Amino acid sequence: MKYLRFFPFYVLSILPFWALYIISDITFFLTYYVLGYRKKVVCKNLHVAFPDKTEKEINSIAKKFYRHFCDMFFEAIKLLTIKPNEVQNRFKINNLSLLTNHLKNNENIMLYTAHQGNWEWLTTVPLFLNVNCNTLYKPLSNTYFNDLFILMRERFNVHCIPSNEGYRHLLHLNNNNIVSMNCVIGDQSPLGKSGKQQTIFFNQQTSFFTGAAKIAKKTDSAIFIPYLKKIKRGSYELFFENIVNQAATLNEQNIIDLYANKLEKVIEKYPELYLWTHKRWKRDGITY
C-alpha cells in the first residue's frame, strides 16, 4: 500500500544518484535564479552570522548553500530505496567508538543535532550501531508528507516519536533500564510558551528549546553533537563531538550554552552546509 501511496517518490528514489543530481541541478537553477526562494532570508541570516564577510563572500556561501539544499532533498528521497551496503559506502563515521564506549557501560546517549549537512541521513546510524534508537520530531500539518518523512526515517530502525510525547516515552525507557540513543534537533526557534532559554549564538541573544537538555539530564545521558562534512555529492563523513559525559552534572543553561558554542564552530567551518532558509532570529529581535 505504501508503494502506491508514495509512488512518485519511489520512482524518484530508484533513480541512480547521477540522474538525481541532474534533476537537482535543474531544481537549483529554478530555486536560486528563477524563483529566488527565500534569498532575502538566507542573505539576512548570513549577514547576521558573518558580519565581517563581504557581499561577494556572502553571495558565494548562499549559492553553495542552495546547491547543497537541492542535493539534500533528493538524497533524502533516496532513503526510501537505498541499499544498506551503499549507505555504508557513502557514509563514513569517523569516531563511532566515542558512542560505543558509553553503550557498553549501559549509558544512554543524546545526539543533540542540528539542521546541518544532510541531517536526514543520520537515520542510517543504526546500520553501524546496534542500539535502540529514537528521534523526536514535530509532526507536519500535511499528513501525506508527514507520513512520507516517517517512512524514510524509520526504514533503518529509528523510532520516530512526536515531540509532545518524547519526554514521557524516553523517561519510560530509562525507568525500565532500556539503554537508548535519542536524537533531538536543537536549533529550531521556540514558539509561544515553549520551554526555552537564551544564549549567545553568532553574537546574538538567541532562544533555544530546553527539551533536549531536560531529557538528557533526567536520563543522565552522555550528550554528543553530530556534524557532517560533505566529501562530495552523495558522500559524507560523520563526526561526533562530546558535550558532556553525564548530563545530570550540568544545568539546562550550561548544556544549551555548550551546544550553541559547538554548533557555531561547526557552522563557521562548513557554512554552506547549514540550513539558512528559516527565520532563526525573528523571535529574538532581528527584523527580516
Automatic annotation (TrEMBL):
GO terms for molecular function: acyltransferase activity. CDD domains: LPLAT_LABLAT-like (cd07984). The chain crosses the membrane at residues 6-35. It comes from the Bacteria. Its main location: membrane. It is found in: Cell inner membrane. It holds the Pfam family Lip_A_acyltrans. Keywords: Acyltransferase, Cell inner membrane, Cell membrane, Membrane, Transferase, Transmembrane, Transmembrane helix. The keyword Transmembrane helix applies. GO terms for biological process: glycolipid biosynthetic process. InterPro entries: LipA_acyltrans. The keyword Transmembrane helix applies. GO terms for cellular component: plasma membrane. This is KDO2-lipid IV(A) lauroyltransferase. It comes from Maribacter litoralis.
